């Protein structure tokens, strides 16, 4: 089994699950036990400043960071927050996922988001997408997802409403021409 860590899963146009319709999920972990990812293009009606208020972390509402949207990262543990961020020294609880992306659930990173000590780029998700052993592989066989190497530019710099299209465009073909039927020779 090849690990899909640091890859995007792009929902096929035929995906009808309301949570994953036109979703782009960043895979943080994938091994023989299953997979864990964060959907990076499903904003919810809460800003970073609002979220920090709810969890009683002081924040500067005048910063651009305070007005950034928070995302629904997946249907699992939606009360738990995850921060994907650009690398920054000093965050001992952050785990490096690639040379350009780190992840944390630590409050020290959350407390810094509206300060000068914040990582240069970040997104927050509530919840995550999880797949049990073999489940993701089965969904791939069923043509539910397309896979590409993760691009930090899509996570951090692409407007939310364009992330699915930009991820699809990196494939180099017209996705509307794809069949949802799996072919097996």
Q: Explain this structure to me?
A:
- There is one protein chain.
- The chain is of the alpha+beta class.
- It has helices spanning 48-54, 107-112, 135-141, 152-156, 163-169; strands at residues 7-11, 24-31, 34-39, 43-47, 69-72, 76-85, 95-96, 102-104, 122-132, 145-149.
- It has a single domain (7-179), classed as VC0467-like.
- The protein is built from 5 helices and 10 strands, in the order ββββαββββαβαβαα.
- Strand 7 and strand 8 form a beta hairpin.
- The protein is globular, with a radius of gyration of 17 Å.
- The model has no long low-confidence stretch (mean pLDDT 92).
- One of its GO terms (cellular component) is cytosol.
- This is UPF0301 protein HHO47_09160.
- Belongs to the UPF0301 (AlgH) family.
Question: Which secondary structure elements does this structure contain, and how are they paired or packed?
Answer:
Layout: E1 7-11, E2 24-31, E3 34-39, E4 43-47, H1 48-54, E5 69-72, E6 76-85, E7 95-96, E8 102-104, H2 107-112, E9 122-132, H3 135-141, E10 145-149, H4 152-156, H5 163-169
Please provide the count of β strands: 10
Whole-number tally of structural domains: 1
CATH homologous superfamily assignment: VC0467-like
Going by helix content, strand content and strand pairing, the class is alpha+beta
Helix content percent band: 10-25%
Q: In percent terms, what proportion of residues is strand?
A: 25-35%
Query: How many DSSP H or I helices?
Result: 5
Distance between the termini: 21 Å
SSE run: EEEEHEEEEHEHEHH
User: What would you call the shape?
Assistant: globular
The CATH class label is: Alpha Beta
Spatial extent as radius of gyration: 17 Å
The CATH topology is: VC0467-like
CATH architecture: 3-Layer(aba) Sandwich
Oligomer: single chain
Mean pLDDT: 92
Largest sheet: 10 strands, mixed
Low-confidence stretches: none
């Amino acid at each position: 089994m090849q690990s899909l860590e640091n890859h995007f899963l792009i929902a096929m146009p035929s995906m009808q699950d309301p949570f994953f319709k036109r979703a782009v999920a960043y895979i943080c972990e994938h091994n023989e036990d299953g997979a864990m990812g964060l959907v990076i293009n499903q904003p919810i009606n809460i800003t970073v400043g609002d979220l920090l208020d709810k969890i009683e972390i002081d924040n500067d509402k005048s910063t651009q960071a305070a007005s950034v949207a928070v995302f629904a990262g997946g249907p699992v543990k939606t009360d738990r927050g995850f921060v994907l961020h650009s690398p920054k020294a000093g965050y001992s609880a952050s785990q490096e996922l690639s040379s350009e992306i780190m992840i944390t659930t630590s409050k020290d990173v959350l407390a810094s988001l509206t300060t000068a000590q914040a990582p240069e780029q970040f997104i927050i998700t509530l919840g995550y997408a999880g797949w049990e052993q073999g489940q993701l592989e089965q969904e791939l066989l069923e043509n539910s997802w397309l896979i590409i190497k993760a691009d930090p530019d899509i996570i951090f710099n692409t407007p939310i409403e364009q992330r699915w299209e930009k991820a699809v465009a990196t494939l180099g073909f017209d996705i509307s021409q794809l069949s949802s039927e799996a072919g097996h020779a």
